[in-house]
Structures are given as C-alpha cells and as structure tokens.
Amino acid sequence: MEPREPLAPFLLAFPGPLRDRLVAAVLSGEKVSTTGLLCEYELEQEELPPVGERSALIDSDGREVAVVEVTEVRVLPLGAVDLQHALDEGEGYTSVAEWRAGHERFWHSEEMREALGDPAFTVDDGTMIVAERFRVVERLG
C-alpha cells in the first residue's frame, strides 16, 4: 500500500457512545449525511468542506477507520431540512420532527454548549446548518 497524504479528521459528535454508533452507521453504509451548525464553522474560523474533499473518519479511540469524500454541501435554515436528509443520517429517524428532536438534544447538551462557549445556546427554525453528504471511499485498518 502506498503512503498517503495526511487527511483532515472527519469527526462525528463527541467521543463516546454516540460517536461509536455514528461511525458504525457510516461503515455499514446507513449513514451518508450529517448535519453541523454553521456557527461552529464560524467559531472555529473553518472553511466549509468543498465537494470532493477527502477526510479520515475518526472513531472514539482517535483511530482513522475510513476515508470519506464529501459529495454535497448545503447551507440552509434548520426549518428547511427535508425528510431525505433526515433518513440519510442513518440514525433510524422516520420523520423530520424525530430527526430534529434528536439533534436539538445534542445541540442543547451541556457538552455542545460548552464547545460553543454559550451556556444558553438554542436553535430555532432560522438557525443556519450545514448539511453534508459523503461516501466512504476506503476502509482503513
């Protein structure tokens, strides 16, 4: 195997049970989309990933387990998320309302609020989100 260039990390949630479930869903092919907050990118002064960018999917132990490639990036208000995106997150959601409730629990969690530096952070229909689609191009390890 040829050595490859180091890849930026593709991180889902925080290390722990949720990340473990999400990484497993990516590896099984169930999860082909993810959602982040635009304000996270702004806070980190991070550019949105361009289509075609490849990253290393990281598990809870910090290991690179797969190479994923971004296939689509959309910035839209939270209230505009559609059912296909919710289904493609691979977390078993069957409606946008169910998807949103799960994401609000995460975004309103103490851990997320601490990461954002805002103990009272909340989302609403107008909160801008980043909806990413991706595909696994290589499994590692």
TrEMBL record:
<protein>
    <recommendedName>
        <fullName>ASCH domain-containing protein</fullName>
    </recommendedName>
</protein>
<dbReference type="InterPro" id="IPR007374">
    <property type="entry name" value="ASCH_domain"/>
</dbReference>
<dbReference type="InterPro" id="IPR015947">
    <property type="entry name" value="PUA-like_sf"/>
</dbReference>
<dbReference type="Pfam" id="PF04266">
    <property type="entry name" value="ASCH"/>
</dbReference>
<dbReference type="InterPro" id="IPR009326">
    <property type="entry name" value="DUF984"/>
</dbReference>
<feature type="domain" description="ASCH">
    <location>
        <begin position="12"/>
        <end position="138"/>
    </location>
</feature>
